[in-house]
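Tutorial handout. Part one gives the primary structure; part two gives the three-dimensional structure as tokens.
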Amino acid sequence: DGRVTLRAALAQAAPGQPITFAPALDGATISLTTVADEHTALKGEVMGMREEPSGLVSYLVGYFPRDYGRSALVARKAVVIDASALPSGITIAWAGGDSPGARVLAVEGDLTLVNVAIRGGRSVTSAITPSGEYPQPWTLARGGALAVWGVARLRDCLLHDNRVQGDFEPSRDRGAFGGAVYADAVEIERCTIAGNEVLGGGAAGGGVYVVGGVDSTLATSRITHSAISGNRIRGLFAYGGGAYTDGGGIGLSKTLRVTNTTIAGNRVAPPPGLPPTLLRAQGYWRGGGLYMSNGRLELLASTVVGNETQGYARTDSRGRRNLA
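Part two.
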């Protein structure tokens, strides 16, 4: 009858061809209940451990295809979803339940979203049979709403009520990252990213996790005229309640520039259910609003207020305090 599902449009569109919407869909919600891919393959970091005179230290092996688990929509090309012609925009929501749920969209390539709201996405670690050169006994919990190995260009978008849930096994390459957005690089303009959550042993980027441009020529990721608020991380090792940047990863020095943006009311805290003795001995909690691991972070004409870091101070073997 002349109608096309979003799933079909995503499959049929040429790389970079805009997907637009009929006027009758103004303000409507597209509810997703079907999983396109149980084992979404996108690049991700692989960490190793080696013995040094000081003891065991972790190091970056590199970025290789990893199993990101369940995604409702998947594309391996440049994707443009443009609802700019709709005054009230369009909402894309995962509505297939929380156990284990699915992220809304995974893209291998650049993604452009205009005037789109995304809610209800869930990325949850699950056990799998290890295989391949870098075997995983678990899927990676990355990007509750969006996981993009490319540049995520978001304009006039709202991302809320998305969640990422990892586990608490001690491994450096299985962290839970990006409550709403996990991307190699970002250009975010006039967006609100609010009320998203990350839970896990290693957890980062309650709202946004920016790898920083490992495979992108984009030297500077940007967040402009936006609000990142009310996002939360609960983890044993936790960083960046609002946003996290990895600066392109170890050895690179790329930039995240935050301009005319409010980072407010985000929180980093210990997870529920773990004994205080374990938390005091092992955990640390850093960057209630923003956390920079590598590269550069630039703040221009922005407000960072009302963010909070909870937890326990630790003292290392040299007697130095490791504070939140």
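Part three, for discussion. The chain has a mean pLDDT of 93. Residues 152 and 186 are 5 Å apart (CA to CA).
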